[in-house]
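ARCHIVE CARD
Drawer: 12
Card no.: 0347
Subject: one protein chain, sequence and derived structure
Cross-reference: see card 0346
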Amino acid sequence: MKKNWINAIAAAAIIISASAAFAETNCYVTIVGTSNGSNIFQVAYSCPDAEAVRISERPNLIQHDWVRYDGPATQQWVWLGPSGTDSLYIFFRQTNSEIIRASISVEVPDSMMDKIFKGTYGYFPNPGSGHDYFPYSSIPGHNLNCTVTEIGLRAVSFIFAYEEQRSWSPTWEITRDNLLGTLNRLYDLTNYNGHAYYQFYGTIAGNIRNDDIPSVDNALLAASLLTIKGYCSQRTFLDGSSEITNICEQILKPMDYSLWYTFSSHRFGWTPDTPSSCDFYSNENRIINSIARVLALEYGTWEFSSAEFLQSMNSLVKPPGTYDGITVNPVSWDGSLFTYLFPAQFVREMETSYGTDSIDKAIESQIRYMENNNRHAFGISDAITPSEVGGYQQGCPPRASGNPDNDPDLGLITPGSLIMSLVSSYRVETANALYYISTNKSDSFSTSIGFHSTVSVTSDISSEVYSALDDGHAILALANVCNETSWNAFYANQSVAEMHKELYGNYPDDIAPPVVWAEPSGGEYFESITVILNANDAPSGSGVADIWYTTDGSDPLINSNRQKYIPPLELANDTVLFLTATDFAGNEALPQRFTYTIVPEPGIMIFGILCLFIKFRHE
């Protein structure tokens, strides 16, 4: 059904209207209540002729995330933006395919999600969390080392934080320097026959710290690099973007996944000497198959056809599991929450049957399990256990192992895994759980470095360890739930979109907005200038249709006086240029503002004044 909506919306006419025009349509939206420190709104709305509705913290229209409109309703909405006064946007698609938009002012005294986003990102540039562009690992006995997964997550975290453009976001210069620093160090690491990376490297020295060559770590590293590459390939106006893209390709192209693959069983091994060991569909290892196909499409380093790719997915074990009447199909081996959600931060799985039947159901069963045990937060996952407790905790039922003795319940949750649940159908329940932890376990969170790796919900004990891996999980989800940054950048690679269509069948061709920029990008000039407006859609997108702009700083999404860009655009006076763009699917770029100050050159001004003086004396 969602696919049908997307097709209809793509052809819809858009009514450019201000909030005042909203009332003329007999539609309304209002905030009727808040909860959890004003971080969750009760949004009431009505629009008699509507058939679909979409709520967002972004003003631009994108052609998905619509829900069916069945009459006046009240919806809970988790606020993900910063503290203070801001706007919440609502879109109604009417039965005649017209789209009405409006905004409503909201006040959030203390934004919990902004604080969590800031703290999660804050882990990576923190001097105590790594050295020379590499993070420290949280795995006991390896604290001065890092996995290649953690290296990739640290690098991509700067893009996620930069894209948010919040008060705590890094500048592009900081982001660029960290990306180049990480990628250059990674490129220089000793690897396995030029095709794959070992699991652990010394954070300081960079030397190999173990002999494992795990397929899943290489796949997750590749996913991060593809995300960086996709992001920068769309933004050629950013200084260093081409260099970043080239280094990513130099690292990705030699990766040969035949090291781990057994064609007779159609399965990948954990390491080259353990064939067919990554065999459960709902474990995080399923990312290996998807990345292997993407790289085969992108670079052809090894032969992994579409048919073989699908066979490899079908060959994974897919048992169902049931807990308290909730069936997870397929279920993971140990019930660990992150195993369901980690690959979904790159691959758009939430909008597929797997997201509905497996990921959402796994979260629902976790919530039910915690309720049955009188606990107030979920997020049971692979856990670094506090020394006071001992042992090791993995997941909760249902699980394919069927043996709870193998996975003892120690009352621990991992906030990084919990945060990933924000991308699911249980966003409100996730926010409630995070609010509980933030309020009742306040010593487990730092606004400058994020959550502890594990938190006990049955005692006062929690781990003192912070984790690059857990914060990496979290920042992926935060970037996606706030602005879909990870998904959009990952799918900016054409081969990713092709892989997705092979695996999940019919899927929208373009659900990501284009990006816009101006050259030059504002500044002070001594004479009139010609400004070039640019827009770029992803290679997997539908292409840029039009660029729209205003020259008085007004919103180009709704101002009826906006102009379509037809070059050249000459600026002779002080101008606040505000621009957006649409693609052929109807997605709108997030508007960007550029300020130009035209100041005559001092010498010209003096000469002009002198000429006037001489003319005056002569007369």
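Annotation on reverse: Confidence is low (pLDDT under 50) at residues 1-21, 607-618. The first strand starts at residue 28 and ends at 35.
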